[in-house]
């Protein structure tokens, strides 16, 4: 029996990672945090002193790097060439470097290879923009998770307000629209629904309802729970 993979794609702010983590926990799957992998690559480039615009040096640095995810005591650990860097990748500097370098084809190609390796070794759930279309095209269960711009902006607004960050709902909405446009129109691996993906609009659903819906879809696609 091969490993069962679940691919979750969708626009920014649809709650993909929160939901994918919960599904992974319920099913005992490995949650592959693709964003953390891009951040780890960014840390690698920063340590090598490479600037975000130096595509040649970035392409060279991609050749001999290993990024993997493992779990210790139920917590995700991200490894860079065997070193646990989980505590080092959440800085603003790493985040902006990840954003700048994730557009380069060599970075995407290398991470797709590493993500495919992970999916061969374990039952995984992976979320991103191009998982069902590019990374795991053969995944039996593919979900395209979305929500209206208004709902996604409202959730983000609430999140920031709870942290005490002053923000404008209108600006967040505009920002999400722009990001959708960028993601859907970029040259490499644009965001689009895979032909065999199930569309889930979470606008009027609770997180638990979305989690249950994804597990139900996985079971319909052949996952045996508790087998």
UniProtKB/TrEMBL annotation:
<keyword id="KW-0547">Nucleotide-binding</keyword>
<keyword id="KW-0067">ATP-binding</keyword>
<feature type="domain" description="Cytidylate kinase">
    <location>
        <begin position="6"/>
        <end position="217"/>
    </location>
</feature>
<dbReference type="InterPro" id="IPR027417">
    <property type="entry name" value="P-loop_NTPase"/>
</dbReference>
<dbReference type="InterPro" id="IPR003136">
    <property type="entry name" value="Cytidylate_kin"/>
</dbReference>
<dbReference type="GO" id="GO:0016301">
    <property type="term" value="F:kinase activity"/>
</dbReference>
<dbReference type="Pfam" id="PF02224">
    <property type="entry name" value="Cytidylate_kin"/>
</dbReference>
<protein>
    <recommendedName>
        <fullName>Cytidylate kinase</fullName>
        <ecNumber>2.7.4.25</ecNumber>
    </recommendedName>
</protein>
<keyword id="KW-0808">Transferase</keyword>
<dbReference type="InterPro" id="IPR011994">
    <property type="entry name" value="Cytidylate_kinase_dom"/>
</dbReference>
<keyword id="KW-0418">Kinase</keyword>
<keyword id="KW-0963">Cytoplasm</keyword>
<feature type="binding site">
    <location>
        <begin position="10"/>
        <end position="18"/>
    </location>
    <ligand>
        <name>ATP</name>
    </ligand>
</feature>
<comment type="similarity">
    <text>Belongs to the cytidylate kinase family. Type 1 subfamily.</text>
</comment>
């Amino acid at each position: 029996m091969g490993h069962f993979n679940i691919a979750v794609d969708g626009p920014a702010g649809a709650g993909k990672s929160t939901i994918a983590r919960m599904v992974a926990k319920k099913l005992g799957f490995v949650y592959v945090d693709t964003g953390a992998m891009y951040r780890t690559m960014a840390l690698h480039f920063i340590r090598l002193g490479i600037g975000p615009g130096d595509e040649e040096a970035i392409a060279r640095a991609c050749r001999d790097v290993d990024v993997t995810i493992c779990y210790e005591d139920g917590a995700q650990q991200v490894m860079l060439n065997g070193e646990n860097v989980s505590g080092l990748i959440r800085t603003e500097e790493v985040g902006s470097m990840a954003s700048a370098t994730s557009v380069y084809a060599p970075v995407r190609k290398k991470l797709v290879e590493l993500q495919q390796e992970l999916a061969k070794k374990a039952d995984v759930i992976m979320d991103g923009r191009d998982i069902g279309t590019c990374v795991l095209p053969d995944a039996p269960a593919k979900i395209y998770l979305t929500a209206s711009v208004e709902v996604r902006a409202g959730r983000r607004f609430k999140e920031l307000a709870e942290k005490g960050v002053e923000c404008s709902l209108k600006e967040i909405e505009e920002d999400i629209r722009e990001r959708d446009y960028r993601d859907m129109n970029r040259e490499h691996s644009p965001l689009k629904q895979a032909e065999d993906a199930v569309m889930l609009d979470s606008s009027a659903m609770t997180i638990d309802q979305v989690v249950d819906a994804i597990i139900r879809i996985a079971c319909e696609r052949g996952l045996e729970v508790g087998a």
